[in-house]
Amino acid sequence: MRSSQPQARLGPPTIRSGNRAGVLEVIRRNQGISRAELSRHTGLTHAAISNIVGELLEQGLIIEDGQSSAELGRPRIRLTINATRYAVIGVDLARSQIRAIVSDLQGNILRSISAASTYDHPVEITLSTLTELLEQLLADCGELCGRIVGIGVGAPGPLSAAEGTILSPPNFGSWRNVPIKQILEERFGLPVFIDNDANGCALAEGWFGAGRTFEDFIYLAIGTGVGAGIMTGGVIQRGVHGIAGEVGHTTIEVAGPHCTCGNYGCLELYTSATALVQAAQQAMMCGEDTMLTDICAGQPQSMSVEAIAIAARRGDLLSLRLIDQEIQYLGAAIVSLINLLDPQAVFLGREVAQAAGDLLLEPLRALVAKRAFSVAAEQVQILCATLGNDAPVIGAACLVIQELFRSPERVLHAERMPSR
Ligand SMILES: [Zn+2]
Asked: Cα–Cα 20 to 30 A to 388, which of 58, 201, 235, 382?
């Protein structure tokens, strides 16, 4: 049995680090806050706040940024996140593209690089593309390189964020149990954090986008896949096995086709960008009279959600039918999500929302108002996400920033490998 001494030592640092993370979170949400206001917000004593603020200033995570004269009495020193002392890398490992950025701690993109990819490439090829991309990014960073403290990776789920392993995403080729965290940490000597792309997008919107004023919301990612990031009380919900939010693989048609996830009639099979494009291509190849033939210059392979949205705005019957079908399926799913989770807001994001958000939003709001429980339907906001195509990479960067704020030592003092 352990002696009491080490156990007694475990308590205070844990409470202190918890308090420190709490203080950082309050500063992040209330940039320019004073020490006295921090004390009121957190319930911590002035002395405790003074100690923690001193530690955070020393670590370079916050700065004193001028004085506030808004309060009575003597001016108070304003505290803000030190956005530029450290930088992080965010990687979006998507089905059709790999993109990597360097971001500051406020989600501002400082460098960006991308490469085409395809999910049916062997894992080794994709990993080699990813490694080359990161090497190029670091080579382009110059002195910024020394400020980079970690790599965040957003990838299709399901994955184990705790283990850092991509498990078995549907429609992601031969990716099965790939220990991406270990691979990248060994190669780049930086701590690596992973999460599924929808969770990353929800985090990014919550910190730097449309979700800043909400604590309970759903980010519905409607891209080549469909998934949701669920934020409850400001915390992403992962579930026991990390599959919470896989709404794209809930049945929307009981008699629907088999999905690669194992289920039948999944929402993703009807509403993803891939599904929309395939339906339009099929109709075009069957000779249906549509403006899409002109927009795509007669080439079905040029079909895109953007083309469908353009044609729908011009009144093309096929495109309007496809958009209406999208609204019906998405609407049913959103009503279920609202009845299940009772959020403040639902944000529509990724490729389909980017291209056709204006066509989807009002009909979806009307459908939700009619079908969800009225107490929720009257108040829930259905909105388009605001970070656009940057949400996945900023979300991946947020994975590192989140960990840096929770546990600065773990990130800043992570063992650096000699290969870097
Ligand atoms: Zn499925």
From this structure: 235
Residue 11 neighbours by CB under 8 Å, 6+ apart: none
Contact 159, 194 (CB under 8 A): yes
Q: Which residue has the tokens 């080729």?
A: 173
71-75, 241-245, 314-318: which is most confident: 314-318
Host domain of residue 167 = 87-202+391-412
| 419 part of a folded domain | no
Q: What is the pLDDT of residue 156?
A: 87
Q: Assess if residue 289 is contained within a domain.
A: yes
Distance, CA 192 to ligand 1 centroid (Å)? 28
Q: What is the pTM of this model?
A: 0.89
How far is the centre of ligand 1, averaged over its atoms, from the C-alpha of 247 (Å)? 9
195 shares a domain with 109: yes
Residues 257 and 134 in one domain: no
Beta strand 62-68 with 159-160 is unpaired
Place of tokens 């449309």: 210
Residue 418 lies in a domain: no
Q: Residue 267 Cα, ligand 1 centroid: separation in angstroms?
A: 7
- The domain boundary, picked from 81, 107, 137, lies at 81
CB-based contacts of 51, cutoff 8 Å, min separation 6: none
Same domain for 20 and 137?
A: no
Tell me the CA distances in angstroms from 121 to 44, 171, 175, 268, one per residue in order: 53, 12, 10, 22
* Rounded distance from Cα 143 to ligand 1 centre (Å): 45
Q: Residue 304 corresponds to which tokens in the numbers above?
A: 């895109």
First CA to last CA across the chain, in angstroms?
42
Cα 249 to ligand 1 centroid, rounded to whole Å: 4
- Taking residues 300-322, what's their average pLDDT? 97
Query: 96-137: per-residue pLDDT in tens?
Result: 899 999 999 999 999 999 999 887 778 888 999 999 999 999
